[in-house]
Amino acid sequence: MTFSVTILGSSSALPTSKRFPTAHLFNSNERFFLIDCGEGTQIQLRRFRLRFSKINHVFISHLHGDHYLGLFGLISSFSLLGRKNDLHIYAHAGLKNMLDCMLAGHNISYTLVFHEIPENKAMQLYEDKNITVTTFPLKHRIAANAFLFKEKKRDLNLRKDAIPKYNLSIKDIQSIKKGNDFYWDADKLIKNEQLTLPSYKERSYAFCSDTAFYPKIVEYLENVDLLYHEATFTEEHRDFAKETKHSTAKQAAEIAKQAKADKLLIGHFSSRYKNVKELENEARETFNNTEAVEEGKTYQVELTRKIK
Question: What is the pTM of this model?
Fold first, then answer.
């Protein structure tokens, strides 16, 4: 099962000739979720040959233009292409008013379904058979939210030889996969771990942009597999980061360290940095498994089994 994110934009408010504003495409078992939609997002989707027609859910972190201005063009393009499936948009209330103004007098070929994200509140926004999406507030100049994508617990995998060995029925198999022990011949207890393989870990990916250094979010990020955290500046510009309520690369790394994340991705780079390697190097001094994101690159979280 695929669990990955592709970076479409890594710049902060000002795009550069090499970096677009923020947008990520998350893939959960070939179900696609767009996270933020900065200017040029649909160009990037085409450039990297991604299946944007499969996007049914768009999550907007906050209402600064570099995180949503590409949405209007994407909505229009979907309609021109004859889209029929509903498009669900999760955002703060102000975006609904802008969408209503934009769409006035236009015939869209599909239905837009708006889901309001409340300010200063953590809650679950979405759920399907594979994942949940939770949101929680960040610390920025306006209301801003993070998104946590997390797999649900899977049923256990039965050992291949168990079915004929114990003559298991469908009911027995279903029970064992849920973690239950099995009574053979009514009185002989067979422990579940003798019948099943170690289960897979539930994978997780968190998107945190834009925000000042905000340790309160660590409680939501504990042991996250893949953490994206904005790193707009280096420590040299720490005072400006504080003033604009953004983070430095070192501060992003400190959040990853406190959360015991497996891997940290940093992005939302200020246009002043021609080479983002200096931000990556700064973060690695605090959290070694850090990578400055590259547009068009896909970051995959592999399946790993739990240790019994």
Answer: 0.91
